[in-house]
Specification:
The structure is a homodimer. Chain A has about 575 residues and is an alpha+beta fold. Chain A has 19 helices and 11 strands. In chain A, the strands form 3 sheets. In chain A, strands 3, 4, 5, 6, 7, 10 and 11 form a 7-stranded mixed sheet that branches. A two-stranded antiparallel sheet of chain A has the order 1-2. In chain A, helix 5 packs across helix 8 and helix 14 runs antiparallel to helix 15. In chain A, about 60% of the residues are buried. The mean pLDDT of chain A is about 95. Chains A and B meet through helix 9, helix 10, helix 11, helix 12 and helix 13 of A and helix 9, helix 10, helix 11, helix 12 and helix 13 of B. Chains A, B: Its EC number is 1.3.99.41. Chains A, B: Involved in the assimilation of dimethylsulphoniopropionate (DMSP), an important compound in the fixation of carbon in marine phytoplankton, by mediating the conversion of 3-(methylthio)propanoyl-CoA (MMPA-CoA) to 3-(methylthio)acryloyl-CoA (MTA-CoA). Chains A, B: Pfam families: Acyl-CoA_dh_1, Acyl-CoA_dh_C, Acyl-CoA_dh_M, Acyl-CoA_dh_N. Chains A, B: Keywords: FAD, Flavoprotein, Oxidoreductase.
Chain lengths: ~575, ~575
């Protein structure tokens, strides 16, 4: 069973739904780009994903990573694939052109990321972490650091890792203990233990550049006393060649539910030499400038895995003859004819296609935030990115996991055995709900920082844009869709008021409904993105138009009603739950 | 982290909520039993589950079953545990007393099953399949077959398997191909390949008795041409000793997402000697007499795994210090203080406690169906069992998987690594949504055979009982709960009308909403069982009363609202989805 990257749908989003080049008007970095170039990148990305990464996926899961001494070995074929990945220039496609990056827009990059995650999530995590490290370094590193490290990282010759978590310090980074002591030459001695470090050690790149959070001796307690350091695995000589091994060693790797070919390391820093990135005690802020991109990357893990699950389940359903067709009443039909199988497949596709659309929209806003010359555009984009990132991260990965499980269910017993690969997609998808901030943390970020903090201003601004699309639809063939969306939108608008009021009256108890609120908002945004796609669908072939229509109807009829359940629950409030004595929970 | 079987809650259900002995009044087989005996059984079961099975669970998952030649080896410790299981008399607790079974009620047996699944699902599947085979043999086997096999099976000295699925024939048994050719002595030669055979081969019992579906030479096509045969691994001599090896061999075992210590075998029957059970061509009917019990058993896998996940997650949450307490605003609180963690834990507990209640209720109805002397009681019980079995199987296992995933989420990254065991519970739980009839098949069974076939009569009878409880609550402290339940009940009553009408007008398209309908009904039944528990809660300690109240409030405020989402989706209908050309799905 094969995976085909959905290049046509991706092109449709970039050009017809969002017309990103139009949005990028005036941004010099993107002026020489056009849709032909974007399509060529997508086509090449598809080839790499389908032909190089996908065939390594199952075996990589079976073999996993091996840890011996200080070394970690990746599964057979990974090293060669990584070589090709670097040679193809994939590491730096969204990277800073000043240091060898290709400077292509995030709106395009997210689509490439989707393909990579779909075809081989474990593999893709290595370059994803490198890209995150590059972003932080590019934004906050000194020129010397950038000159020494960034080009080799953006080419993938050296990879990167992000060292945040410690055994006692996960979601709460404020209590981390790793120490940084100044050396005389301006560098630092970094000591401490970091856990859950993706790509912390492996055998694919010549060097690994760790970005590490640690405390300076004079650091205030809590999150405002954390600084960010660059700690290379091998020291870099003045001529750029590799020098001594820096004492940062992999103590063990985790044995996990999934992403088994991605090394998840315990790293021990034993007075390893490091270099400060950005200001002292401002490490968390530096880290968070790249966190939006990292969260969006992980969000795409959910989209990619849901899509590959859909594709395999769809192929299986067509070939599996079982039972009487409930459509035509005849014996010996494929299970694609069964109402419940159709429900699961359309559920998968209809969510995946709006998640993909939101990824492009969010990527485009990251681009506008970074590059727009017009200050209003830039600021609006920044607000939109802040608002939508936690939604994308949590919703894409929650719905991704749900849809991977639909995929298993379509295959029945065959979905549960390893041979078919569906269960691997679900296992690989499960972690995305946890790392880069659990989905509970995302929801809390949304309601506390992104909605209550500005009293609903940014989300109202989004709702206004949704209303604008509804207005546009009023003299189209999709007027009825707009009418339905309007109804759901008003429910979610009311929820914003409810949340703000609960926040006033009940304080943090309100956060009990955060996950449901995030979902309710996400389903309305999905409805909006379906409407936007329908309004642009005359650019599609007749078959593709019909497929879009089918998926959007399913979404409106059967998934948007979930909003009603979330709304009732949120209105009931979590004050009772919150007030309970611990022993009653 | 330890598992404690919830013995007190189980006693409360048996005695105070359902007063099963009162219900069993007049059933001679149960007259000598009392609550002291039931409690003693539960206490002993708890010891066995907690001390013998639970410690083997994680290592069993790591080691898995090994296949070599024709043999399958279970993980270290399983054989000894199985020995103790048999010596404790656990195999036959619900078995036919005429052949060494203890004849204890199913209402009690389900609770023991929950403990066993919670502590070690892989192990528990072996005796569960044996119990299923015993039921079918007891109900349909000839006296000679019963005398030869049943006592050794009910003691567990010999185990059983159920051989239904073939490579091309899963949910659709009507197309199976295995053949049975008559021998001159009245036995048959069985040939064919069976897959997904749980406990089809292992090293724990002296003999394995396979119940096998196959076709006689003169069999009509389809499901009415299938007969049931008993095929022993070792032939049994006239004196009861074991004779020759029968040619039924394990060709391979599956590598699965979970239940790795449960052997899932490909069995090749090569003219193996078998004996007809029941009438020729009536094999499916024979099989289905025990299917309700098997489905309920698998349902309990969902309950047990959700409960053990809750217990571990609850312990972890109390010990894990992380972040500011959103309850008390102070730094350094346990994550149990976080609103979202409370939401997940209460979600787990509030569903588990109503699923457990429904299991007892359903078990009690199985007992009444089998043993009640009053024909009306018996027939009502039979209708209730038919109606509730698919609901229990699908809802317990779907919510079980959801809740195991909540458990992972509470632990964050630690939930995803194998060390803590939470991810194993989720992997082990995932199969329960698939085997013994996928949950989609359960939902189809519910809407087609159990609701539409009698035009809603049986489900209306259930709704009347629910209304009766609401009436009882009207002069209690829980009147408001009854009022809320009434409201949800009316929504679900309307859904029955909607379904019946869709069935008339749209035919099989209606089945697209089957899973949602099943869930909506299940949540209302849950609300009923919460009300019943509250009405009986004065028998509890003050702390336990408060815990019941907390969980029931959570359930009503935050889980029952889901009904509204299902209702809207069902009312929108699946006729559009159903009518789509295949290429649009």
């Amino acid at each position: 069973m094969s995976y085909k990257a959905p290049v046509d749908d991706m092109s449709f989003l970039l050009k017809n739904v969002f017309d990103v080049q139009q949005q990028f008007d005036g941004i010099s970095q993107y002026q020489d780009f056009d849709y032909d170039l974007y399509n060529a990148v997508l086509e090449e990305g598809a080839k790499f994903a389908e032909n190089i990464l996908y065939p390594l996926n199952r075996d990589g899961d079976e073999e996993g990573c091996q840890h011996e001494g200080h070394d970690v070995t990746t599964p057979k074929g990974f090293k060669e694939a990584y070589q090709q990945f670097c040679e193809g220039g994939w590491q730096g496609i969204n990277g800073d052109p000043e240091y060898g990056g290709q400077g292509l827009p995030k709106a395009l990059h997210v689509l490439v990321e989707e393909m990579l995650y779909a075809s081989n999530t474990s593999f893709t995590l290595y370059p994803s972490l490198t890209a995150g490290a590059c972003s932080a370094l590019a934004a906050h590193g000194s020129d010397v650091l950038k000159q020494t490290y960034l080009e080799n990282m953006q080419s993938g010759v050296w990879s990167g890792s992000m060292c945040l978590t410690e055994p006692h310090s996960g979601s709460d980074l404020g209590i981390l203990k790793s120490k940084a002591e100044p050396n005389e030459d301006g560098s630092y001695k970094i000591s401490g233990t970091k856990i859950f470090i993706t790509g912390g050690e492996h055998d694919m790149a010549d060097n690994i550049i760790h970005l590490v959070l640690a405390r300076l001796p004079d650091a205030p307690k809590g999150p405002r006393g954390i600084s960010l350091f660059l700690v290379p695995k091998f020291m870099v000589n003045d001529d750029g060649s590799l020098g001594e091994r820096n004492p940062v060693f992999c103590g063990s790797i985790e044995h996990k539910m999934g992403i088994k070919a991605s090394s998840t390391c315990v790293l021990n820093f034993d007075e390893a030499t490091g270099y400060l990135i950005g200001e002292p005690h401002r490490g968390l802020a530096c880290m968070f400038t790249m966190m939006n991109k990292e969260r969006l990357s992980i969000a795409l893990q959910g989209v990619g895995l849901a899509d590959v699950s859909y594709q395999i389940a769809r192929q299986y359903a067509e070939e599996r003859i079982q039972g009487r067709s409930s459509r035509e009443g005849k014996q010996g039909a494929s299970i694609l004819e069964h109402a419940d199988v159709r429900r699961m497949l359309l559920s998968m596709r209809s969510v995946t296609e709006i998640n993909r659309a939101l990824a492009v929209y969010l990527g485009m806003n990251i681009d506008l935030d970074e590059h727009a010359t017009d200050i209003e555009t830039k600021q609006k984009a920044a607000r939109r990115v802040a608002l939508l990132t936690p939604i994308a991260k949590a919703f894409f990965t929650d719905s991704g996991f749900e849809n991977c499980n639909h995929g298993i269910q379509v295959l029945g017993g065959h979905g549960y055995v390893r041979e078919w690969g569906l269960e691997q997609f679900a296992r690989d998808a499960r972690i995305a709900q946890i790392y880069e901030g659990t989905n509970g943390i995302q929801a809390q970020d949304l309601v506390v920082r992104k909605v209550c903090a500005d009293k609903g201003a940014a989300i109202t601004e989004l709702f206004d844009d949704i209303s604008e699309t509804i207005k546009q639809s009023s003299d189209s063939d999709f007027k009825h869709v707009g009418v339905s969306l309007e109804k759901h939108l008003s429910v979610v608008k009311e929820l914003v008021s409810v949340l703000l009021q609960q926040n006033e009256e009940q304080g943090a108890a309100m956060q009990g409904g955060a996950v449901e609120f995030l979902n309710a908002v996400a389903y309305v945004i999905g409805g909006w993105l379906w409407l936007k796609q329908l309004l642009a669908s005359n650019a599609l072939t007749e078959l593709e138009q019909k497929r879009k229509l089918a998926a959007s109807e399913f979404y409106y009829d059967h998934l948007m009603p979930r909003i009603e359940g979330y709304a009732q629950s949120i209105k009931n409030g979590y004050h009772l739950t919150f007030a309970l004595d611990d022993e009653l929970v």
